[in-house]
Amino acid sequence: TFNVTFNLTLQHRTVPRAGEEPRCVYWQLVGTEGRWTSSGCTRVGGGALWSVCTCTHFSTFAILMAIHPITESFALSVVTYVGLSVSLVCLFLTIITFLLSRSLWSISIILHLQLSICLFA
What we know:
Elements: E1 6-11, E2 23-30, E3 33-37, E4 41-46, E5 50-55, E6 61-64, H1 74-100, H2 107-120
Antiparallel strand pairs: 1-5, 2-3, 2-6, 4-5
Helix pairs in contact: 1-2
């Protein structure tokens, strides 16, 4: 952090929709993970296609247009869990089939068995 501020002009990739206010943010590392945060940076001006940000530090900067929490729909959750369950059952049956048909074993079958075990894991 510096005792002085500096201005940074960033170009938008899209025009903000009605009700959306662009925010100046930077990438902050927190432990081994990172996140976008606006502390130390504020939007002081700009237009529909650009923003002027004033910041107290150097970092990787960006403009966030729509700041809405990501909500996962119930239908997407159901499809995800049903699809995962069906896939695991089918992979388990495939592994059992490969193990029980030792008389047909070849390099190809062994490779497919190993692939099925990896996908199941």
